[in-house]
Structure to design on (171 residues):
């Protein structure tokens, strides 16, 4: 089968998001499918689409799975942060008979200081985070089956995150 002229727009191998010493995050396109798994309950983000994969793109799309109770974004993987681009977080249940059933409870923290709020959901949901709004952690409870997570950054270009203080965060 001949290669399509549009093959340059197809991403067949996800990248792994890696935190570097300077606290910046970069996509690394793996040479093999032996992707590291951070722990048994969180695969960590896999970059399925980015400027590194398709040079004309400014959008980044990440995905991963949560398979058990965990907290994401408290410093072990990354910290609560904000940046100058928008993000859309998607939480997708894997119950094929009822796609609205998330199969877990998620606490998603938005804002900082006096504006900090916790959003809780148990159905397949999405959360829009405008530019400049602090977000994280995510607290996952009562995970009954794997949940697929996706993050879409429509106009991020080069991702630069700015950590925010954890003081006064989770109550």
């Amino acid at each position: 089968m001949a290669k399509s002229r549009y093959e340059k727009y197809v991403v067949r191998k996800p990248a792994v998001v890696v935190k570097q010493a300077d606290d910046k995050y970069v996509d690394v396109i793996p040479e093999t499918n032996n992707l590291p798994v951070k722990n048994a309950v969180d695969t960590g983000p896999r970059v399925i689409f980015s400027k590194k994969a398709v040079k004309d793109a400014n959008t980044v799309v990440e995905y991963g799975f949560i398979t058990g109770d965990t907290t994401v974004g408290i410093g072990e993987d990354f910290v609560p942060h904000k940046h100058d681009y928008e993000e859309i977080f998607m939480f997708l249940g894997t119950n094929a008979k009822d796609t609205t059933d998330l199969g877990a409870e998620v606490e998603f923290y938005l804002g900082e200081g006096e504006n900090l709020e916790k959003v809780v959901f148990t159905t397949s949901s999405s959360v829009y985070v405008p530019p400049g709004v602090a977000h994280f952690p995510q607290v996952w409870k009562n995970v009954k089956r794997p949940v697929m997570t996706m993050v879409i950054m429509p106009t991020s270009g080069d991702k630069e995150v700015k950590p925010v203080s954890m003081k006064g965060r989770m109550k």
About this structure: Residues 13-158 form a domain with the Jelly Rolls fold (CATH 2.60.120.10). The first strand starts at residue 15 and ends at 19. The chain has a mean pLDDT of 78. The CA atoms of residues 80 and 165 lie 7 Å apart.
